[in-house]
Specification:
Blueprint lengths: L4 E6 L4 H5 L1 H9 L3 E6 L9 E2 L2 H18 L5 H8 L5 E2 L2 H11 L5 H14 L8 H10 L3 H8 L3 H20 L18
Parallel strand pairs: 1-2
Antiparallel strand pairs: 3-4
């Protein structure tokens, strides 16, 4: 018997993607296979400093997402993520963690995404930090992925770039891209 598959294009720092999480879980429960592909929307040229104006913009969107989806955006998230001066809005590290989680089993990418989203939007943790991501994956029993993040290899970076490139290609193919949304795959060092 063939299982239906949905390809889910996402960025780990996208509030709208977090808003879609309950629907994705219902699809999984119904036996639908979900292939999670990161798009790099908020990495590379899509990364930016978190300043007061962007934090306000994000919080306004987050409240709309909450009203539409019921997903929680906590006070800890607002205080520790959005209102943290000098922080960076960059999904490179989270995308690398999701890639590491999915190397042995691509189905684990969605599990890693869910863990990272909860850590950000509910617990108010900095998921742009590799040590935070390592701890999250380790606590979730994804020890091999956590170990890979301890000292990322060029092979892991390449796998992440390839995964993002695949997501971006499909993003463009379905014409979901626009000049203000395009980004480049993860490059360089992640700290």
């Amino acid at each position: 018997m063939q299982t239906d598959t949905i390809i889910y294009l996402f960025d780990p720092l996208c509030g709208w993607c977090y808003g879609a999480a309950p629907m994705l879980e219902r699809l999984r429960i119904d036996g639908i296979r979900i292939e999670a592909l990161p798009t790099g929307l908020f990495s590379g040229s899509g990364a930016r400093p978190m300043d007061a104006a962007f934090a306000s913009y994000a919080w306004t969107n987050d409240q709309r997402i909450h009203r539409l989806s019921g997903q929680l955006f906590s006070a800890d998230y607002r205080a520790n993520v959005l209102n943290r001066p000098g922080s960076l809005f960059d999904s490179s590290a989270a995308t690398l963690a999701i890639t590491a989680a999915g190397l042995a089993d691509p189905n684990l990418r969605l599990d890693a995404l869910r863990i990272i989203q909860h850590a950000r939007y509910v617990a108010g943790l900095d998921v742009t930090s590799l040590p935070v991501l390592i701890d999250l994956l380790d606590q979730a029993g994804m020890t091999s992925a956590a170990d890979l993040l301890q000292e990322p290899t060029e092979a892991l970076f390449e796998a992440s770039r390839d995964l993002v490139a695949k997501g971006q290609q499909l993003f463009r193919q379905v014409r979901a891209d626009s000049p203000h949304l395009s980004s480049t795959p993860t490059r360089g060092r992640i700290s």
